[in-house]
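@channel sequence for tomorrow's demo:
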Amino acid sequence: MRSQFEYGTLTDSKDAQQLGAILEQCFSSPPGSSETYFKRVGLENFRALRASGQLAGGLATLPMGQWFGNQRVPMVGIAAVGIAPEYRGSGAAIALMQHTLQDLHVNGAALSALYPAAQQLYRKAGYEQGGSFCTWEIPAKAIQVKERSLLPIQPIHSPTAEVFQALSQQQSQTNNGNLDRHPAIWEEILKPDAPEAVYAYLFGETAQPEGYIIFSQKQINNSAALVVLDWAVLTPSAGYSFWKFLSNHRSQIEKVRWRSSIIDPLTLLLPEQSAKLHESDRWLLRIVSITSALEKRGYPPTAEAELHLDVQDELLPDNSGKFILSVANGQGTVTRGGKGELRLDIRSLAPLYTGLFSPHELQFLGQLEATEGAIATATQLFTGSHPWLRDFF
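structure tokens (generated this afternoon):
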């Protein structure tokens, strides 16, 4: 079915306007609102699908990185997937995704991640659940942390990504799934389309900060809310300072929202279990190159093991076959061959790779077949902190 479509880049401003109109209709956005998004992402990062010379749809690609096992793995985020109404149901969407993945594979991408409007389409392209995307909420009056060794708080009046990137990376690399962000994501944090003002503060001395908070204030369901757009906490003192800073807004703010893991360690610093999970969703991951994905992620530094994989990937044949993952000193190498003791398809490899589900859980769900020894080895290599993202793209 893909043969009836032509895949490529946007060739000119007319193409961009046409795709912008398609995306605005798909996402119920105001006319012309796509122009800002196109500027942020860059026209060179959009891909288009045509049928008989007519633009049928397109998407955005965001080259960035994702942290697994304290190592940065090259990842391309997929965003703004939209098909014109007259081409829906024609196979255009799956054709667009298949062409894009083949393109990413040829150009050396290890991983691809996205947020699905519906899982079925992307599962057909080899994506599967990879981790969580959660919003927490707490009444401002319920924070009430005790006075500790609090840090000085420095306002940043003209915030730029450069001020926060190093702190963000230092925190992100210890959290499976966190991003090495594309510039468009930083711009969305610091200069969102929403009308509310954005405020930014550093925790600690200016020369050596230990964390930061970026937030806006708005009305949510007739309640005054402080919405944390981004944060980093690198020390216990920064954690207590984070909560104390938020608590100091309690006279004007009723509730605070922030994004974190489904098990948020920051909540351990609160006196009571007053923080509640407000929303929870999952993002999807696709292994684009088995060799690159397995070799670039990190592993437990004390592990010395071989995992014999047998993988099936109907779309990208280079990912199919038997592979040996050899791990030592926290690093992995991949060679062809082996016993194929752990058998699964490319889709089921995603939640194993991220650690969202254990090998035992995936086996129980019929997502893989393996010997007891292979299950034990995979558990040793892939078990880690819960994979999560605090960025939507």
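heads up for whoever presents: The two ends are 29 Å apart (CA to CA).
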